[in-house]
């Protein structure tokens, strides 16, 4: 599996709605509110990089009118899958 972390800066008052929309998108395995310069972190997963790009673009397109900026951090290898597996052990 391939994955990416996406950091989003969201317009004031839209954080809860943006998180709800992102959680409903295919391939989005985690969305959480953060403290600091980014408001939200989203984790996207897919079987290959082409599918990952498509899922990420579609998720971001669903909230583009409510976001001001974003950073995309692709995971190496099974970085995101490792994240998912850690959650299951706890």
Spatial arrangement of strands, main beta sheet: 2-3-1-4
Order of helices and strands: EHEEHEH
Which outline best applies?
Answer: globular
Output the structural class.
Answer: alpha+beta
Mean pLDDT: 87
Number of helices: 3
The largest sheet is: 4 strands, antiparallel
CATH class call: Alpha Beta
Name the CATH architecture: 2-Layer Sandwich
**What fold name stands as the CATH topology?**
Alpha-Beta Plaits
For the terminal residues, how far apart are their CA atoms?
21 Å
Helix content: 25-40%
Can you tell me the residue ranges where pLDDT is under 50 for at least 5 consecutive residues?
A: 85-90
What is the number of E strands? 4
Walkthrough of the structure:
With about 90 residues, the protein is α+β, with helices and mostly antiparallel strands. It is built from three helices and four strands; from the N terminus they run βαββαβα. The protein has a four-stranded antiparallel beta sheet, with helices on both faces.
């Amino acid at each position: 599996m391939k994955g990416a972390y996406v950091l989003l800066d969201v317009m004031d008052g839209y954080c809860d709605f943006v998180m709800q929309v992102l959680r409903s998108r295919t391939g989005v395995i985690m969305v959480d509110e953060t403290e600091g310069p980014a408001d939200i972190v989203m984790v996207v997963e897919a079987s290959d990089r082409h599918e990952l790009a498509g899922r990420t673009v579609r998720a971001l397109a669903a909230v583009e009118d409510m976001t001001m900026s974003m950073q995309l951090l692709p995971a190496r290898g099974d970085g995101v899958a490792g994240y998912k597996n850690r959650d299951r052990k706890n």
